[in-house]
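May I ask for whichever protein you like with its backbone structure tokens?
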Amino acid sequence: MQAGAHKHQREQPIMARLPYLTRADLPPEHQDLLTRDIALFRLMTHSPGGARAFSGLGGYIRNKSKLDPRLRELAILQVGWLSRSPYEWSHHVKIGHDFGVSDDDIQALIDDTAGKPTTLDVNARTVLRAAREMTVQGAASAETFTALQGLLSTEHLTDLVLAIAFYCAVVRFLATMQVDVEPQYMTYLERWPLPKD
């Protein structure tokens, strides 16, 4: 059954609204943009300048920010879950695992979003609440922001807001461009399927 499922995934039609580019499609000075050869970048490189700017902020958030990477990834996963973004959710389940997000954390995020009790620590619950408010309402409430101020330094708080805002933009780009989830990430969607509603 697993093999059949993977076969079905490989046969999925390409849905993206623009063609995926390869390194060979780009002039030499922009080929480095596809060093990480994922569908999002292969589509975004239709605008090499935009892709480079995007990668600059994304690279800072992932590799240079001093914000606790587990909290960052939980916030990003919350954005992906609420936005029903298969690409964002599947990629950041994998990335989250790399940065200390456990399977229990992922299930707890799902439960917390549904208003069910969890064993998440106060930092994680507050970060998830901020991510939910920013994704759904456009801004964190005064109460949530004050709670974050009690938990994080001003630098970490600013980086958290930057990360959530950035990934709110990412999911809208993914949805509008209809970027396909690569087959190797489909297993994460099978294990933790997004809600249908």
Q: What stands out?
A: Confidence is low (pLDDT under 50) at residues 1-11. The domain at 2-191 is CATH 1.20.1290.10 (AhpD-like).
